[in-house]
Amino acid sequence: MEALFELLFKYRPTLFERGSLGLGVSWPVLVGLLVLAALLTPTLLRYSRARGKADGRDRVLLTGLRVALLGILVLSLCRPVLVLSTVVPQQSFVGVLVDDSLSMRIADDDGRARSEFVRATFGDPDSPLLEALEARFKLRYLRFAESAERVAGVDSLLFAGQLTDLATALARARQELSTVPLAGLVVVGDGADNTDGALTEVLVALRAAGVPVYAVGLGRERFERDLEVSRVEAPRAVLEDTTLVADVRLTHRGLAGERVQLVVEDGGRVVHTEDVELPVLGEIGVRVHATASEPGPRVFTFRVVPLEGEQVVENNRRDVLVRVVDREEKILYFEGEPRFEAKFLRRAVDGDDNLRVVTLLRTSENKFYRVGVDDAEELADGFPRTREELYRYRGLILGSIEASFFTGDQLRMIGDFVSERGGGLLMLGGRHSFSEGGYARTPVADALPVVLGEAEEVEPKRFFASVDVELTPFGRTHGITQLGATEAESAERWGALPPLSIVNPVSRAKPGAATLLTGTVDGQDTPQVVLAYQRYGSGKALAFTVQDSWQWQMNAEIPLDDTTHEGLWQQLLRWLVSDVPGPVRVMPSEDRVSPGRAVELRVEVRDEAFVRLNDAQVVAVVVDPAGHEREYPVEWSVERDGEYTTRFSTAAPGFYEARVEATRHGEPLGSATTWIEAAPLTTEYFGAERRTELLERVVDETGGRFYTEETVADLPEDLSYTESGSTVKERKELWNMPVLFLAALALACTEWGYRKWRALA
Amino acid sequence: MLLVILGGLLPAAADFGPPDVPYENVPYDGRFAFTRLRFTPSRWGPGDYAWGLDLKWNHDYPRSDSHLSKILQATTTIDVALEGTDIFALDDPELFRHPLAYVCEPGFWTMTEAEARSLREYMLKGGFVIVDDFRGPHWYAFVEGLGRVLADARLIPLEATHPIFDVFFRIDPYTIHHPYFAPGPPAYYGVFEDNDPTRRLMLVANYNSDISEYWEWSDTGFIPIELSNEAYKLGVDYVVYGMTH
Fold it and tell me: Tell me, what's the ipTM?
């Protein structure tokens, strides 16, 4: 199409886009043409009035054809020109940015690596493209991957960069060449950009500076056969022996119907395998469960066994760093009455070293029985009355305890425990729970994931129903409700559990809530919500509406060695307190980096009531893989209350332990630890098809042009016609465009043919 | 001599059947319902069921059971079924919906293999058993029966400082003597998971004691109220402990 355009209009469309149209005729000639037109006007009028066999329609048509023909003639006589800015040879510079990352090694061009094009085109002095460019411009080369540097040429490139930061590369090139007349930048690469670089800002700056960016896209836009572990979502920290639930997304090209084996490894030890059939659609999500049994920083590997003929096999595995924590999480369980649910709940988690359920049991009015407290002072006055006291716990379970037991401030405190402190709240079914406990319109009701009826809607007569509990589709894959090694086994186990009972009819979950278990109640059309949760502020709240889950332990049909009840409660409470922050939190900008890269540590500091503090003294101690410690001051970021930051650089591969301690006026506020792994990354092999869309965005926003290997020959000429660099105005004649001659010929022939057809003179 | 003559006039032992004990269990609805276990008593005296008059397991029923239920309702926050109590055989699957059970006169209990297996599962799963009203030589039959339920079970003496005697009321159980007669002072024994006193208490036995006797007659003035109070306190402690530990 472009060649046809060039044949008709003499020049390529790009030149018309770049230039402006004008007339090359001089004023005297133009005046002469106008005089000639004035003289011809009476003739034309006479021509139009001429009568013969022609009717009105013939005259209009023939006049139009003749006027158009004359118009072309007049236009040609006026010497139309295309005015272009053209660089002055060897006075302008072009920056050539070459992608030096690992993905350039991918051999997806008929077995030829992407890097080979770079060497053949920019490394060979006899390359026609290089000759054409060097004839017009002074070339300056930059390599880019994680960073960007000036290089003498492409011969020194190793194509071993583990990340690609396009934004930094463009900004660096602009900076490097800011003092010379720059005709434009040429990016040669596959369009990978796997950092969080501020590309938009860089493009705006380049556009403002009038620097067009041209891009030469390498590699295939779509592989023929490839399978990729495109994403793994797993918690960054779990308690020891917790079932780790990870969402794995597999993406494939041309492998529909093939069966692959998904393998999960913990530090090289296989902990889970699963067969997956690849769907017709290009991707599938798989939820896998694996037990995190070893404490400390653990690398979990999710990999699929490579299939024959895959384009890239390095993208068949992803590593995820998980912090497996061996600590005891304290949960406060407040129960309003002695009942078997309390006994069996505590017993279910009794063997779990990472959970400690501190029980406050109201045995009679204003009489409490405490189990599992640290000392005689803990909960001595009953339910906590201050935030400092309540926020010591990471989770809170409310049993059958009516809302009126609490003061208004205590109810608000419970709501804040979830939303501000980030704790986990669980309400159990019971005669004094949910609506029956008078929680409607309280701050606790706001936090709960279910809709509570108003007091007047609560049945005055005691409600009781047997309920057959069922998994929802969401519950089939959720970590809390996994009762088997596989989803199928788990679903089968759920189907075999005996019914429980409810005294709180709860049938509506809130719009943002996730329902894991529902229940069928005889005579009730709407299913009972049995287990649901929602995020609420910084924390989460669950509702477990049955009153006797202990029957899954005691029921005569349940085998003695069955661990369903224990497993369910341990999973539920572990999930309840997962990700619940302490007063001091530390978060690395990245938890896996290539050796040598810097890591930012972001620290949040709060007091016992979880009020953010800006006047804390915070220190980070980083222990490198060799065991050497180095201390870094952590400063308040100013941008946010209670947020402190520092940076450190990795060097050797291995785990870096970052321990953060915060004090205030000499008093310790808390500490936190995180790990960062420095290791060779394979990020470059993911999403490794050519990202034309990104490259086109870069060129569109800066006024450049996108090329492939097939079209790159036009690059030198396109670069020449630019407003940037040292330029002169060039006028290209258009009067002799073939399209004008062809149009005139077509008009003349049409008139002749029409006259012949209508038998006119 | 008169007794011998009268005894010789009695019909053969097999002619006596069990006495009728009419009862209707409370349907399960999640509330605490006092649960009593029934068993076939061993033969004692002339004829089965002591001339067809005595079941042993039902001693003090129903007054003691309903009286303790009312006391529980009045003194604690336990949601108690007051309209009745439950009686279950040792191997009744419905027993497993009531993880706290009371056994009276275990010195006379017998059990089939299925009953022993069921009671073992009940206790190991989490059930809590209160054994009461036995003394003197009844010990041997109790221990023999317990051995059939849990072959390795050891009866470990419970000190007065054990938490079960302080969970709701602080009491000294050794001051609660048998209301009528016993060959020795009261003694309290426990059976723990894995015979480990730091683990869960599965069974508590009141030897040389009969606290349900106090519960039964507490509203009549037959027994001094101070003594009945102590027996109630012990019963409340047992129930609160059994429901929470």
Answer: 0.93
